[in-house]
Amino acid sequence: MATAICKRCRAQAEPTRLETAAGKSDSISVTLRGMPVLACPNGHRQFLKQDFALKLVEHLVKEDEAGLPAGKEKGLIFTHYHCGDCGAELGKNAERRETFPLEVSLPEFGTFRVELTAPLYRCPKCSREQLHSLEEVRKATPPALAEAFRAADIPPG
Ligand SMILES: [Zn+2]
Ligand SMILES: [Zn+2]
Fold it and tell me: How many Å lie between the centroid of ligand 2 and the Cα of residue 72?
């Protein structure tokens, strides 16, 4: 990855990795571990490229989160959730929270870990533990990431 100019102080920015940064939205939290960024000697951070955040969100939502155990969302006005396996209705109260470590591989930017923590619900019929729905997780992912970027002082774009 080539070096670049820091957008804030014009010093030379070099590729490095962010130790951790966390953010949350609703009941979903994300922790970024080892995410590649550019940093200048004055401690300013920026994305490797303009479209990094977009690529990360797209990859997470379309590929990494797709493999999580999840129920199905039903109902237009009053949303309720059903077991992804047997279809029984899931309760409103989560059994516990679980952290899923996702190894995110972005073609242009390499691999790093995103930990997603979300409430898990146990199906009353078949006992499968699952998230309420992927829609719910997908909706919360971009704002949770935005908060993590703000926490790490990475300006958007
Ligand atoms: Zn700088
Ligand atoms: Zn079930």
Answer: 11
Q: Which H, E and C letters describe 30-44, residue by residue?
A: EEEEEEEEEECCCCC
The CA dihedral of 2, 151, 23, 34, to the nearest 10 degrees, is 30
Task: Answer yes or no: is pLDDT of 36 > 90.
Answer: yes
Q: How far is the CA of 82 from the centre of ligand 2 (A)?
A: 8
Which residue in the block uniquely carries the two structure tokens 């401690």?
43
DSSP state of 9: T
- How far is Cα 87 from Cα 82, in angstroms, rounded to an integer? 5
Q: How far is the CA of 32 from the centre of ligand 1 (A)?
A: 22
* pLDDT tens digits, one per residue of 97-120: 999 999 999 998 999 999 999 999
Q: How far is the CA of 47 from the centre of ligand 1 (A)?
A: 13
One-letter identity of residue 14 = E
